[in-house]
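Why does this matter for the project? Reviewers at the last site visit asked to see concrete outputs rather than summary tables. In response, this paragraph embeds two records directly. Each consists of the residue sequence and, immediately after it, the corresponding structure tokens. Nothing has been edited or filtered.
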Amino acid sequence: MSKTLVAYFSASGVTAEKAKIIAEAAGADLYEIRPAVPYTQEDLDFKNKQSRSSVEMADKSFRPELADKDAHAEDYDTIFLGFPIWWYMAPTIINTFLESYDLSGKTIILFATSDGSRFGNTVKFLQGSVSDTTVIKEGKLVTKMQPLVIENWVKEFDL
């Protein structure tokens, strides 16, 4: 088993595409974080304050249920964790994922996709879902990065 995991949540497929590139470049295992109840297009309507994603992001304590907890994240040293940026931070399902495993002493490197938003307070928000010995690093927004650029970024970590 690789000591590196690429775990990702992808609502539209964009993050999934980038996660696969990262996993291949890192020689890492790949795991999709899936909600127990998949998101529909209506759920992702950010213009509708009553849509599922809008309601979840308005309540930072909300934790969507996972479809499974088969990532075995505690078995890895390094985890690349990917997601789309919603309202300048990670979707709350990422907190659910982090809180589902003992990640003490692990290094988590974030990557995200976005049409324009930056990481904002993402690291600070996610840090509350892991132990004090877990290191969370703000990585890269990879939305518009070409595969070779992503591969070179991953190589910087000397995994």
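We now turn to the second protein, recorded in exactly the same manner.
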Amino acid sequence: MDNQPNSALPTLVSLLICDQVIDDKASNKKSAIGIFNMILVGKLPTAIHQMAILASLTEISGKVELELRLVRDADDAILFSGKGTVEAPDPLAVVDLIFSMTGVQIPAAGQYAFELLASGEILGRRRFQVFLRPPPPPRAGPPATA
């Protein structure tokens, strides 16, 4: 007996991490602003004020359950997870999904990844690094006078 689902998984065309996504309703064009793979923070733990994920999918058959999650690579801990569904008017259509987030909690420096799953299967992941900004060097004071 075959335990495979009746429909194939969607194909992930792209997965971007950025500061924000502008969605022009008139042209239906998306602009990813401030694409990054690294974050430099002043203290840890920290919260990322604003970030967005732009995911493009195609070959969507019927209604598909999606999950976006933030994973710490060091121990595969899931720090954030959100679920929803998507469907396309045509399996050949490309569907752009925008996930806007505020206050994303980052507990420590290291490597993290956003993973996009469909029906529990990972479609793709996008890694990024978090670094602690080194403290500024001490300022040299005025020369000592006798």
